[in-house]
């Protein structure tokens, strides 16, 4: 069955470690991962691989990895996507450069397409007002409170939270973040999803047998 791709936002100073579990197992589950870079001054005109949208210039992660985005943010439409993933980055807190990604998240959620944000991206969504009426989490509550947002009463002390199509997590919880994503998109469910989490979060060797059994049944 054909699936819409998952779009992974990439930008300078993005936190390398926060989305790897999610993207690896989304890809194993049959989802194409398409990287999305900034539009505007950094975008260059020209066809993308499949959509005809403009391409974006390379970005460099906080770990020094150089990433060539598949397309620019302006070319991403909610109806063409299964999910938008927003990783953390220093730029979320040091400039307004990434505000267009928060606005794109609003566009996705308004269209009923889910969004997953981790670390600094949660602060970007808070500034955009997207956490005011949804349960959510982040690094710590006072980190989001510093944005002046109106959703402090909806903050949840949890590894990761999903509410009405929006997944949030703190920077130390990439596995919990991935668990919410994999469950939301149906890559794993029930005991298999929990086994996947126990294997990668808790190093539970017994969980591997559950995953292998599920794999052989597939």
Automatic annotation (TrEMBL):
Xref: SUPFAM superfamilies: Class I glutamine amidotransferase-like (SSF52317)
InterPro entries, per the entry: Class_I_gatase-like, DJ-1/PfpI
Transmembrane segments: none
Sequence ranges assigned to domain DJ-1/PfpI in this UniProt record: 6-182
Gene3D superfamilies: 3.40.50.880
Pfam families: DJ-1_PfpI
Name of the molecule in the record: DJ-1/PfpI family protein
